[in-house]
């Protein structure tokens, strides 16, 4: 099973993007789905995560601006990003984790610049 992330691009400060991540096949017993990002010269960090029961957590830097959602039937996860700033510029990765495995998408570049 592979994850395919899409939706990145170049956007002006204050703009919005919606990232999507879909699995090529069925993944059973998913515990969490999430989005991570890695900016140049920095470590990969958690952006948002959604748990099996529906609980969501966000990095402090994106709270109130980003929203994570998922479609269980499609093994997909989305990230709506609003009021983007230059500090949000990074490669964004989706991740799906079960009790035994984790799957990562290939990354999609988000660049916020005027």
What does this structure look like?
It is a single chain. It is built from no helices and eleven strands. It is 0% helix and 54% strand. The mean pLDDT is 94. Strand 7 (66-71) and strand 8 form a beta hairpin. Strands 2, 4, 5, 6, 9, 10 and 11 form a seven-stranded mixed β-sheet that branches.
Could you give the topology of this structure?
Layout: E1 3-6, E2 9-11, E3 17-23, E4 30-38, E5 45-51, E6 56-58, E7 66-71, E8 76-81, E9 90-98, E10 102-104, E11 108-112
Tell me the number of helical segments per DSSP (H or I, 4 or more residues long).
0
> How many strands?
11
Order of helical and strand elements: EEEEEEEEEEE
* Shape designation: globular
**What is the C-alpha radius of gyration, as a whole number of Å?**
13 Å
Strand content: over 45%
Computed structural class: mainly beta
Gap from first CA to last CA = 37 Å
Parts with pLDDT < 50 across at least 5 consecutive residues: none
Short description:
This protein is mainly β. The protein is 0% helix and 54% strand.
Essential attributes:
single chain; 114 residues; mainly beta; seven-stranded mixed β-sheet; four-stranded antiparallel β-sheet
């Amino acid at each position: 099973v592979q994850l395919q992330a899409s939706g990145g691009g170049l956007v002006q400060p204050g703009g919005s993007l919606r990232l999507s991540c879909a699995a090529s096949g069925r993944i059973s017993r998913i515990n969490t789905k999430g989005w991570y990002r890695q900016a140049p010269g920095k470590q990969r960090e958690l952006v948002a995560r959604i748990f099996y029961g529906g609980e969501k957590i966000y990095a402090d830097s994106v709270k109130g601006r980003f929203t994570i959602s998922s479609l269980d039937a499609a093994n997909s996860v989305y990230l709506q990003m609003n009021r983007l700033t230059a500090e949000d510029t990074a490669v964004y990765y989706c991740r799906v984790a079960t009790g035994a495995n984790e799957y990562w998408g290939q990354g999609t570049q988000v660049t916020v610049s005027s």
